């Protein structure tokens, strides 16, 4: 796995550059990803969505749409992510807990 720790390299990405206008040291994002926010579950979901956004994906936080929560989407996914080519769609479930907690993984088709 490769990581980028040079801020000059990160700021070449226009999405990160725009975000860093509000979070200059990326400390809020870092806190969200490491569970240092007020609501660890929600913060982690937001952080993951931002990472996909920074990579050029279009992120739909469908799991956060309250009207859809009664339709079981909250139990299944947090984000729908569209690849830049628009030819692939990724369903994302964000968790910092055991992967199959409450049978979420086994509820997916083919699971």
What radius of gyration results from the CA coordinates?
A: 15 Å
Low-confidence stretches: none
How far apart are the first and last residues' alpha carbons, in Å? 27 Å
- How many helices does DSSP assign? 6
For the structure shown, list the relevant keywords.
111 residues; alpha+beta; globular
How would you characterize the overall build of this protein?
By secondary structure, this protein is α+β, with helices and mostly antiparallel strands. The longest helix has 15 residues, at 40-54. The chain has helices spanning 7-10, 14-20, 27-33, 40-54, 66-69, 73-76, and strands at 58-60, 79-82, 89-92. Helix 3 crosses helix 4 (40-54). The model has no long low-confidence stretch (mean pLDDT 80). The chain is built from 6 helices and 3 strands; from the N terminus they run H-H-H-H-E-H-H-E-E. It is globular, with a radius of gyration of 15 Å. A hairpin with a 6-residue loop joins strand 2 and strand 3 (89-92). It has one domain. The protein has a 3-stranded antiparallel beta sheet, covered by helices on one side.
Architecture blueprint of SSEs:
Blueprint: H1 7-10, H2 14-20, H3 27-33, H4 40-54, E1 58-60, H5 66-69, H6 73-76, E2 79-82, E3 89-92
Compact overview of the structure:
This protein is an alpha+beta fold and 111 residues long. The chain has helices at residues 7-10, 14-20, 27-33, 40-54, 66-69, 73-76; strands at 58-60, 79-82, 89-92.
